[in-house]
Design brief:
The complex is a heterodimer of chains A (139) and B (380).
Chain A (H helix, E strand, L loop, with lengths): L15 H8 L4 E5 L5 E2 L14 E5 L3 E10 L12 E8 L4 E5 L15 E9 L2 E8 L5
Chain B lengths: L4 E8 L11 H16 L8 E4 L3 H8 L5 E3 L7 H15 L4 E9 L16 H5 L15 H9 L3 H15 L13 H6 L2 E4 L1 E2 L8 E10 H7 L6 E10 L14 H14 L8 E4 L5 H9 L8 H6 L16 H4 L7 H13 L11 E8 L4 E8 L4
Parallel strand pairs in B: 2-3, 2-4, 9-10
Antiparallel strand pairs in B: 1-7, 1-8, 4-7, 5-6, 8-11, 10-11
Classes of the chains: A mainly beta (139), B alpha/beta (380).
Bound molecules: zinc ion (ZN).
The site of zinc ion has 8 residues of chain A, from loops.
Chain lengths: 139, 380
């Protein structure tokens, strides 16, 4: 396949479980065995309580739209996308992550904060990225 | 009582704007020489050096033998951190007179550091793949959340740019001086909704430098300009990438650094005559006014729109025109300090009558680091 012009993430030992998850169609985040809180991005210890006992769990993939911009000045590789939404979503598990919103025409009217979203995975190079679409958009 | 520490010299580069004939290092060194001349000191009076990048290079180029170095590089707020660290070092006797210098070929990129982050960095794995392109696509993301939770309107966001242009209009060194309206802001190109071009900072070349020393040494050396006292300082951090900012409607770094600075200075908000808040984008002064405690949550948009931060208003803010209209090299914090010093010396282009206490809030990265300085024209 042709190499993506869009940036492709490169895993590190600490983040490999996350990217193994996206390749398997799962959105994985860490959960603290001591205080039960989740965290993201991958870390060696819980930022809430300091415990080193973090385990990887598979998130539900359900999220809400926390905030976003609609970018009109595309980054390299995004020239053909038209204005695109760079969003931060809040997972049901309580952690937030950056993503793109797909499956809907990107306008302020279509993107209401707190709207329900569902993860989908996009192959890019050898990696799979978690993107989010409005709940029900893929049905 | 702690030993009094002062800013005894402060100057910017001769030129600001588009300067392809000057390298990053030239801008740093030219600004440093201007600040030493402003203080009436020579390089042999300096025994401490701070900058973003290599203080070794700065010291060596100027022929300074440093007893203290600080290369803290946490974004545009770094120079406020340097003032804080220098103040502590001077009080601790680690050194006596510190040069803090900034120069950045932010627009022309002559001799500038490479900024790209690797695909295996935290940013490279968890933000760059989504098409972010620098601060316009990241620093801006919290704004819609703030607008939803507080009711800030698009008009009020635009009014920040309008208000600051009124100050720039009075400042011959400002890059953008023509008065603008909310309609002008709305008519400017959409960069990253909800931000139009006029709600985004300039990208320029330039520099500035400071000389920090003890009040006693400044008086013994006979420095040339009115002394500006460092009454209180604070520093903190939030998240290294914008998606992990703790609360998109309030900056933890702004809150903690300003609380520390106000407490150390022993002042209340009513004592403040003049404020500089790092304004990479139009929403940042709104967060700053609220997170520093000048206003309650959700009040700053209306406050600015009603003219209270404009010329003649009761809380003069970003009186050089700010990053939106004066200059923004990439690490703007140095210019915010410079304007506060000018105001407290009574030599600003748009002078606030009787300004005695100024508060400077610096941001680094995308709400990532923050530092606050309480400065005064007297010992406090
Ligand atoms: Zn925990």
């Amino acid at each position: 396949m042709t190499a993506s012009r869009k940036p492709v993430p490169k895993p590190t030992p600490d983040t490999q479980p996350f990217w193994d998850g996206t390749a398997a169609g799962e959105l994985r985040v860490q959960r603290c065995a001591a205080c039960s809180r989740h965290c993201f991005y991958p870390r060696p210890s819980c930022p809430a309580c300091g415990s080193g006992e973090l385990e990887w769990i598979t998130a539900s993939g359900r999220a809400t739209l926390y905030s976003y911009v609609i970018n009109h000045r595309p980054a390299p590789g995004f020239e053909d996308d038209g204005p695109y939404a760079i969003a931060v979503v809040e997972l049901e598990e309580g952690v937030r992550m950056m993503t793109n919103i797909v499956g809907v025409e990107i306008t302020p009217e279509n993107l209401e904060l707190d709207m329900p979203l569902q993860v989908v995975f996009e192959k890019r190079g050898d990696m799979h990225l978690p993107l989010f679409e409005p709940t029900g958009a893929g049905l | 009582m702690k030993d009094a520490v002062v800013i005894a010299g402060a100057a910017e580069s001769d030129e600001l704007g588009k300067l392809p004939h000057l390298s990053t290092l030239q801008l740093q060194l030219g600004s440093a020489r201007n600040a030493m001349a402003d203080a009436g000191l020579t390089k042999d009076d300096i025994d401490g050096v701070a900058c973003v990048g290599s203080p070794i290079q700065i010291a060596h180029s100027l022929g300074i033998t440093p007893a203290w170095l600080d290369g803290t590089g946490v974004g545009g707020s770094s120079f406020l951190f340097h003032v804080r660290h220098a103040t502590a070092a001077i009080r601790a006797g680690l050194c006596h007179t510190v040069l803090i210098t900034h120069g950045e070929s932010g627009r022309s990129r002559v001799g500038a550091a490479r900024m790209a982050m690797g695909p295996d960095s935290v940013l490279g794995q968890f933000e760059l793949p989504y098409g972010v392109l620098g601060p316009t696509t990241t620093f801006t993301i919290p704004a819609l959340r703030y607008m939803k939770e507080t009711g800030l309107t698009h008009e009020q966001l635009a009014e920040v740019a309008v208000a600051q242009r009124r100050w720039a209009n009075l400042n011959p060194r400002a890059a953008m001086r023509d008065l603008i309206t909310v309609d002008d802001v709305f008519a400017s190109r959409m960069v990253a909704y909800p931000f139009h071009l006029l709600e985004c900072c300039l990208v320029t070349d330039g520099g500035g430098a400071l000389i920090v020393t003890s009040e006693d040494r400044a008086r013994a050396l006979g420095t040339a300009k009115p002394l500006v006292h460092v009454l209180g300082t604070g520093e903190s951090a939030d998240a290294p990438i914008i998606s992990q900012m703790e609360d998109f409607t309030s900056s933890k770094g702004f809150r903690l650094s300003s609380a520390a600075a106000f407490a150390e200075a022993g002042i209340s908000h009513d004592d403040v005559d003049h404020v500089m808040i790092y304004d990479a984008f139009a929403h940042v002064p709104i967060y700053g006014l609220e997170d520093m405690g000048f206003l309650k949550r959700g009040e700053a948009g209306a406050f600015i729109a009603e003219g209270h931060t404009s010329p003649g208003g009761r809380l003069p803010l970003n009186t050089n025109g700010g990053g939106l209209s004066y200059t923004h090299t990439g690490m703007y914090g140095m210019f915010a300090i410079q304007e506060a010093v000018r105001q407290l010396r009574g030599e600003a282009a748009a002078q606030v009558p009787g300004a005695e206490i100024s508060v400077v809030l610096g941001n680094g990265g995308m709400f990532a680091s923050a530092a606050t300085l309480v400065l005064a024209g007297h010992r406090g």
